[in-house]
Structure formats: C-alpha cells, structure tokens
Amino acid sequence: MELNELYSEVIKEHSISGHNKKHLPYATIVAPGRNPSCGDEIELELQMENGIIKDSAFTGVGCAISQASISIMIDLVRGRTAQDARRLAELFLKMALRQPLLPDELQELEDAAALQNISDMPARVKCATMPWHTLLKALDSI
Ligand SMILES: [Zn+2]
C-alpha cells in the first residue's frame, strides 16, 4: 500500500467512525469552530481537570476532511496537559502551512500526520486547520 493510500485510509476511518462525535457529560469548555468557505461548523468540548484534557468530543457538521481532522486531534490530545496540546496544535498548523517539521515532530503528530498533504490542496487547508484553531482558542479561555 502506498503511503498516500494509507493516509487516506486514516482520514476515511476517522471521518466515518464517529467515536469522538458526541456530547461530554462533564464538559468544562465548549468552543465553536467555523469554516464558512466550506460550511464546516463544529463545537469542540473539553473536560479539563487539573490542567489536563481528561476528555474531549465534538458535535457538528462538515466535510470529511474537517470531521477527520477534529477526530484525529481529539484522539491525540486526550489525556495531555493543556501545554502539550497547545504545542501539538502549533506543530499541526505549521505542517498544514508547509513549514518543515523535524521527523520527530512529525512523529509526535501520530495520525494527524496523515493530513500532511493537505498543504497541496489550498482550498481544503482551512477544513483541516479549523479544529486546531478552535482547540487553541478553547485553551486560551482557561
Ligand atoms: Zn470542509
């Protein structure tokens, strides 16, 4: 299997699995995210406990890229400190804007690295980055 195929599998899996698409019973932060150019509209929920993202989920509608990106992001940041999550979001945004990442940094992004080629599709970059901007906004509100 080509690397690109593997990546699109990851995106497809996350966009259809829906395992992060729900309301959290004990959300402490709810942050809206919008990408009007595509019609993506989500609400990111975080349950913060002692500076750690104890749980996260989302609701809303959007294209496969935005739904996959937010689901991958939630899997990545669950259980992390706000500081770690912020760093990962900044790495992801760097990658999406075609700024070179070190191999270690790319590895840190785990499944989110599957969205690396999004930078080749300018029209879809906002679909992929919107959830991460929403996360940074949410963490700013702590
Ligand atoms: Zn979109």
Automatic annotation (TrEMBL):
- List each copy of the NIF system FeS cluster assembly NifU N-terminal domain by range: 7-127
Taxonomic superkingdom: Bacteria
The record's Gene Ontology biological-process terms are: iron-sulfur cluster assembly
Q: Name one GO molecular function term.
A: iron-sulfur cluster binding
Q: Which InterPro entries match?
A: NIF_FeS_clus_asmbl_NifU_N
- Pfam families the record matches: NifU_N
Task: Report the protein name in the record.
Answer: Modular FeS cluster scaffolding protein NifU
